[in-house]
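$ ./design --mode recover --in tokens.txt
reading tokens...
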């Protein structure tokens, strides 16, 4: 799924992360690579052009270059623009408040309409009694195909008589749905070529007769940006309400998913991700952007980290560190920042790191104990750990509900840390590494 484009972006991001500093020329190179990756993914060139312009506008701004984490900021800009291009959020299906809702599926031959009708019914059947309607009278086995699927999914099925035309079948199906108390009717129509005027007119008639709440254009994702013209043509005739992209599991390059919204204004509502009836998902632009940019959700990590880390606080600690004044108060502030970022485990899960032991490297409980211990100290003790004699340590252990051993351990750790800092002070560049090290 989206393997090519994901691979391309992975390379681009890795190469940016290798830079010690992010300069304008690094960004320019990155943007050029992104442009090529998008064009190669068969994204519509107008969409690519707009996308690149928008990324450029933000990437060269203060927010990226002067930020604490410029590369991550740049990736975030790209991530947000990708989401934006795909329509920012999932576009929900619209149903009638009362009475029978109707979904009409339309699309080219072999795009996956019949399969999608069953998938959609299966997806919605927990909340609604669903009737599938076979209105494809052109392909001999079409009705049987839908019937088999309906039985598999335990959905209602209506296919009319052998001699009935699609319009008649649809009208009868609505009556049948009313009688049998169905809530939702999903109509499977015959695959057609966009230039087939007779078949297009037939769809217009069906639309008039059944007044669908949704007219969903079903398309094969592999068709790439070619589908833009087809969508526009169907839209002109039928005013479609959304799109379902099928065969997203096959090696789709991403062109369709990334081009449709900006070029046609229509939203992708679902994707088909396999031949099975439950291989069907809501289309979430943020998830697709996440997939394109790599496996771990790097971006939400950045967002979270940013929202919680008080940059001023960090700068203060840094200054105190440089002046050799870093004490247990600063240590406490650091711990709180880490805690504010949410569950450590959750944060670690979001990082695309390998290795089964990453969770064990940080003990969340230890962090809470550490905080409790420091809080049980007097301000004087926090400012100068050297005055912590035996009786003070006993008092602190009691106050924090820990043990003297734990207090000893913490004091020792802090001592080691200060020694480490002394060494590092000669080389301020490694400060960030140290700050990171403290989390572990
Ligand atoms: N891998 C994969 N295959 C799919 C998906 N959706 C549909 N298919 C397959 O695509 C083929 C065509 O699907 P149909 O549902 O018959 O397509 P259709 O649009 O109804 O075809 P016509 O009625 O002939 O126009 C079938 O073999 C399906 O199993 C999908 O999301 N992933
Ligand atoms: Mg079909």
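writing sequence...
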């Amino acid at each position: 799924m989206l393997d090519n484009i994901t691979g391309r972006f992975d390379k681009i991001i890795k190469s940016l992360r290798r830079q010690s500093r992010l300069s304008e020329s690094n960004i320019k190179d990155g943007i050029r690579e992104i442009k090529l990756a998008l064009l190669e993914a068969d994204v519509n060139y107008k969409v690519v052009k707009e996308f690149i312009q928008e990324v450029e506008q933000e990437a060269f701004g203060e927010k990226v270059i002067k930020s604490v984490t410029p590369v991550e900021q740049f990736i975030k800009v790209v991530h947000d623009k990708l989401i934006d291009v795909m329509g920012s959020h999932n576009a929900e299906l619209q149903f009638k408040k009362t009475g029978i809702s109707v979904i009409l599926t339309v699309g080219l031959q072999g795009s996956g309409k019949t399969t999608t009708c069953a998938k959609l019914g299966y997806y919605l059947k927990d909340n609604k009694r669903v009737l599938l309607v076979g209105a494809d009278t052109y392909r001999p086995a079409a009705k049987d195909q839908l019937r088999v699927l309906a039985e598999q999914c335990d959905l209602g099925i209506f296919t009319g008589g052998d001699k009935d035309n699609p319009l008649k079948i649809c009208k009868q199906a609505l009556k049948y749905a009313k009688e049998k108390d169905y809530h939702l009717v999903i109509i499977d129509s015959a695959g057609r070529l966009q230039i087939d005027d007779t078949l297009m007119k037939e769809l217009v008639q069906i639309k008039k007769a059944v007044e669908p709440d949704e007219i969903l254009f079903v398309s094969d994702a592999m068709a790439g940006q070619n589908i833009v013209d087809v969508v526009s043509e169907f839209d002109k005739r039928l005013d479609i309400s959304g799109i379902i992209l099928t065969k997203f599991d096959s090696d789709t390059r991403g062109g369709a998913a990334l081009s449709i919204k900006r070029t046609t204004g229509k939203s992708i509502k679902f994707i088909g991700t396999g031949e099975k009836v439950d291989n069907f998902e809501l289309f979430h632009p943020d998830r697709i952007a996440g997939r394109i940019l790599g496996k771990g959700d790097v971006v939400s990590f950045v967002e979270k980290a940013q929202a919680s880390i008080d940059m001023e606080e960090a700068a203060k600690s840094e200054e105190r560190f440089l002046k050799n004044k870093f004490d247990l108060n600063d240590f406490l502030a650091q711990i709180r920042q880490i805690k504010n970022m949410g569950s450590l485990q959750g944060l670690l899960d979001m990082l695309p790191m390998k290795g089964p032991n990453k969770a064990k490297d940080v003990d969340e409980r230890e962090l809470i104990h550490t905080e409790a211990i420091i809080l049980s100290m007097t301000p004087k003790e926090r400012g100068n750990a050297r005055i912590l004699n035996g009786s003070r340590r006993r008092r602190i252990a009691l106050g924090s509900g820990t043990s003297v051993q734990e207090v000893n351990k913490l004091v020792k750790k802090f001592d080691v840390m200060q020694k480490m800092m002394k060494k590092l002070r000669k080389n301020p560049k490694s400060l960030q590494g140290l700050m990171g090290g403290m989390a572990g």
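exit 0
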